[in-house]
Backbone:
């Protein structure tokens, strides 16, 4: 079929044909078409019609197929309204007419169906997308009883024949060819023998789908020029290919269409499995044909209608984890063993999980895939992850996965045997630290690391007292809850134990000291307490306070407070569980930004990219103090699998330049947040170091009244906008930003744009965001 052979009749010709052939005295208005010509025939009052002039290459038998199909559908109870054929005065359903070029063209007239085309309805609600699926399923259901010899044609829009499109790949620039190749390969692997066949409509694009005037329900499908006998599921695949266009969450939109369809016409497991591949193949075929047709008919605007959005969608789909979309569709159709609805999982948690475990967000997330800086939920939505600092080098980083899986298949034991991974990891880890910090212990969590740090400090000093920063959190064990004001002074806490002293949080935004001398003045509190405290074992301090609300220590604070603690015989413990491994950007460890060095460093979260692991690194003297004959053993700590994962994390940080990225992207993001603050008075302060940032919300910039309800509403709204954040701080009014270090400037731009949107929809007085 050559689009260049589209008929070239004028509106005047159409008026004349309508009059002469059909006795209709109506005005004619050209409608868009890929390869035919269509005219809307109308006056101001009476019924409307469509005059259709077929492409010169269109066979009579295919037009007969369309006519018979419409006649057939008119007899079925589909709940849909279809165009009806109007016979010419001669009695003919199809009338040949000669054009000025001497060629003969076939003319038909159909009744006009009222409605709004789906493309003109925005946004497409979930209900409307389901209605599209259901309507298409009713159409497919009805067409299962229809046969016509001409439907068994070799047709380039038949997805079974998509290979007819692939030669056009050569017309595309190399990067675009590369983008399409995986979709082409997936199409080539489709097992067509498992897919039921029937005559299908084959063209549910959003210019052909008609919706009722309220925009709530699909009422009709137009244009039967692509009807073909093929795998029935292709009809749905084509519908979802178009339903995904221009959508922020294409898979979620597609899932609604699939759900609506499956309720009416049950998809088999094989059909469900082929759906995504076929939808992507349709998009690939479309852009290939568009490239070919652009060559043949450079002036045809219709060809461009869906081309740009199609490329944008293809790029988006290419960035999704390969099997996630399939899994979403399998879940919709009930073919994912073990898959459960969010409601069932919430109910199970309520019944069987310890009730003190919490869930994030008022509507909890059900995440089923992670890759890079993105998380993917069971319903087809992708989220930009700005909070999970555990997936330090990106969710499911392939190098970390491969390293851990390889070692898991070889051997997993414990530190009572020799192993290269253990030796190599400790050598490389200690090499990142000041030379004094040269002895390491590997454990299984941040809490276990801090527990051991506490034991080390007590063994070394013989003391029992501990200094901590206000609002600090150091872990979940009994001993650590006792040194975590975040817990013992929080909900359900039993207050400060006698052996613990709370030091003021060195917060230069909200605390008592805010000027250039703040570091010294906050440190003076530590010095005072150190002078008056006997039996001091340790000062535990996060190098930047996470639970305290992303609070960055003022210059000089660590150096001066460490000196005072050491003078009193105490051990200085830097908790780098949140902040370590390059997140600070300018330095590998956050404490280095203070120009100070602790006696013990504790690590966790990011150390093995989500594999449960922690570490303590200290001095030879302190380590020796614990070695009193009692063995220290942590069954899982330092096992070769954990070490393999942790080694891969160090490799990736180095090879992907992630510390530098934290510095550059973090700086860029902080500047953007401060720019947002100039427009949104709700932002009292934006602060950060590398990719560890905080945005403190206030109701009044002068009184700094904390905006806690606004912060939690903003986080919920951001989730709706596809961005994951969390709140923290003693006043619950600080938005935390601590994404995987693969976070890019594009991601920062997206985060900033969404924050801008969410903040713009916020209007004082305080309360929840809309
Ligand atoms: N220290 C800090 C600063 C933390 O943020 C955490 C965990 N949130 C811990 C220690 C405890 O780590 P884990 O949960 O791995 O035991």
Residues:
């Amino acid at each position: 079929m050559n689009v260049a052979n589209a008929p070239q009749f004028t509106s005047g010709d159409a008026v004349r044909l309508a009059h002469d052939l059909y006795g209709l005295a109506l005005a004619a208005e050209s409608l868009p078409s890929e390869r035919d010509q269509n005219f809307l025939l109308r006056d101001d009052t009476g019924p409307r019609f469509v005059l259709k002039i077929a492409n010169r290459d269109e066979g009579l038998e295919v037009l007969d197929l369309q006519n018979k199909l419409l006649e057939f559908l008119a007899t079925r109870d589909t709940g849909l309204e279809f165009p009806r054929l109007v016979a010419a005065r001669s009695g003919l359903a199809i009338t040949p007419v000669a054009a000025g070029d001497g060629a003969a063209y076939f003319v038909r007239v159909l009744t006009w169906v009222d409605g709004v085309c789906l493309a003109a309805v925005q946004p497409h609600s979930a209900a409307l997308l389901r209605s599209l699926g259901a309507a298409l399923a009713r159409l497919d259901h009805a067409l299962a009883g229809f046969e016509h010899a001409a439907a068994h044609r070799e047709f380039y829009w038949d997805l079974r024949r998509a290979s007819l499109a692939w030669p056009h790949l050569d017309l595309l620039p190399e990067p675009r060819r590369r983008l399409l190749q995986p979709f082409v390969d997936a199409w080539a692997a489709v097992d067509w023998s498992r897919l039921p066949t029937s005559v299908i409509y084959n063209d549910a694009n959003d210019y052909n789908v008609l919706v009722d005037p309220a925009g709530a329900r699909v009422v009709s499908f137009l244009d039967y020029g692509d009807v073909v006998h093929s795998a029935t599921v292709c009809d749905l695949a084509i519908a979802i290919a178009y339903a995904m266009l221009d959508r922020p969450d294409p898979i979620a939109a597609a899932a609604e269409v699939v759900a609506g369809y499956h309720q009416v016409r049950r998809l088999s497991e094989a059909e469900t499995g082929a759906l995504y591949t076929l939808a992507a193949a349709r998009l690939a075929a479309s852009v290939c044909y568009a490239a070919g047709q652009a060559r043949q008919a450079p002036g045809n605007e219709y060809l461009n209608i869906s081309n740009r959005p199609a490329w944008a969608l293809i790029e988006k789909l290419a960035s999704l984890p390969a099997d996630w979309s399939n899994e979403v569709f399998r879940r919709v159709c009930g073919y994912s063993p073990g898959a459960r609805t969010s409601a069932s999982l919430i109910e199970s948690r309520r019944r069987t999980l310890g009730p003190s475990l919490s869930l994030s967000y008022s509507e909890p997330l059900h995440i089923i895939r992670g890759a890079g800086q993105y998380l993917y939920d069971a319903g087809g939505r992708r989220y930009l992850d700005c909070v999970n600092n555990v997936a330090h080098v990106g969710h499911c980083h392939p190098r970390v996965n491969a390293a851990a899986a390889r070692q898991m298949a070889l051997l997993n034991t414990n530190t009572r045997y020799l192993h290269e991974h253990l030796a190599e990891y400790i050598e490389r880890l200690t090499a990142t630290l000041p030379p004094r910090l040269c002895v390491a212990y590997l454990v299984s969590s941040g809490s276990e690391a801090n527990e051991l740090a506490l034991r080390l400090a007590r063994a070394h000093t013989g003391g029992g007292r501990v200094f901590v920063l206000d609002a600090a959190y150091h872990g979940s064990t009994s001993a650590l809850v006792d040194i975590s004001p975040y817990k013992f002074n929080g909900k359900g806490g039993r207050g400060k134990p006698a052996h613990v002293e709370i030091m003021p949080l060195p917060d230069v935004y909200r605390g008592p000291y805010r000027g250039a001398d703040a570091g010294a003045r906050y440190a003076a509190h530590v010095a005072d307490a150190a002078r008056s405290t006997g039996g001091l074992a340790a000062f535990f301090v996060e190098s930047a306070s996470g639970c305290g609300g992303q609070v960055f220590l003022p210059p000089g604070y660590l150096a001066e407070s460490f000196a005072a603690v050491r003078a009193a015989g105490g051990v200085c413990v830097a908790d780098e569980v949140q902040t370590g491994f390059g997140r600070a950007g300018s330095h590998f460890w956050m404490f280095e930004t203070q120009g100070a060095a602790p006696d013990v460093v504790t690590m966790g979260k990011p150390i093995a990219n989500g594999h449960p692991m922690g570490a303590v690194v200290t001095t030879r003297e302190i380590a020796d103090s614990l070695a009193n004959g009692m063995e220290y053993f942590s069954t899982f700590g330092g096992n070769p699998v954990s070490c393999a994962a942790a080694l891969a994390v160090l490799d990736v940080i180095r090879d992907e330049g992630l510390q530098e990225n934290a510095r550059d992207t973090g700086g860029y993001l902080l500047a953007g947040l401060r720019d947002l603050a100039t427009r949104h008075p709700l932002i009292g302060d934006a602060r950060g170091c590398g990719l560890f940032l905080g945005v403190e919300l206030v109701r009044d910039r002068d009184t700094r009244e904390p905006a806690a309800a606004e912060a939690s509403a903003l986080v919920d709204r951001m989730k709706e906008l596809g961005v994951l954040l969390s709140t923290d701080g003693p006043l619950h009014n600080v938005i935390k930003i601590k994404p995987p270090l693969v976070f890019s400037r594009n991601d920062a731009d997206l985060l900033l744009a969404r924050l801008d949107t969410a903040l713009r929809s916020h209007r004082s007085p305080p309360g929840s965001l809309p």
Q: What stands out?
A: The mean pLDDT is 95.
